[in-house]
Amino acid sequence: PYIEDGRVRLIFREVYFDRFGLWASIVARCAGDTMRFFGITDVLYMTQREWIGDGEPATIADNLRTIGLTAGLEPAALDACFADETKARTLIAWYEENAARDNVSATPSFMVNGTLYPNMTFAEMAAIIDPIVAASDWTAPTE
């Protein structure tokens, strides 16, 4: 409800602490537009235990490829995304810059008004956000 009614703005920043997270990001970013990116990202989060599988790099790469293909990516486009070293280096540099600036050392992490928080339940997050929203001059849009 916070984002939909305009009280909170979400900025999503990817963090990868291993090559598998980077590979997952490459698959999601290969989708192109924002809606498809977040659709694939949702699938990646919901099925992480499955695509990690036995932890073998070849298995993980195959599983991520399957997710991309299932999402409608063309095989040649997916191959090109995985082969794009410039894009991979750009994503790594972007992550490193964001992680250093925000002091992120674990995922998920949340930044609320400049304060970093670790993973938490929705109720715990609401206990942090509600007082901030209540103290602001925000008013609900009228229809």
Characterise this structure.
The chain is mainly alpha-helical. The chain contains seven helices and two strands. The protein has a two-stranded antiparallel sheet with strand order 1-2. β1 and β2 form a beta hairpin. α1 packs antiparallel against α2 and α1 crosses α5. The chain is elongated, with a radius of gyration of 18 Å. The model has no long low-confidence stretch (mean pLDDT 90).
Give the helix/strand layout.
Blueprint: H1 19-30, H2 34-46, H3 48-52, H4 57-70, H5 75-83, H6 85-102, E1 109-112, E2 115-118, H7 122-135
Helix pairs in contact: 1-2, 1-4, 1-5
Q: Can I get a quick summary?
A:
The chain is mostly helical.
Report the order of strands and helices.
HHHHHHEEH
Report the uncertain regions. none
Q: Could you describe the largest sheet, including whether it forms a barrel?
A: 2 strands, antiparallel
Distance between the termini: 17 Å
Please bin the fraction of helical residues: 55-70%
Gross morphology: elongated
What percentage of amino acids are in beta strands?
Answer: 5-15%
- Integer-rounded radius of gyration: 18 Å
Mean pLDDT: 90
SS-based structural class?
A: mainly alpha
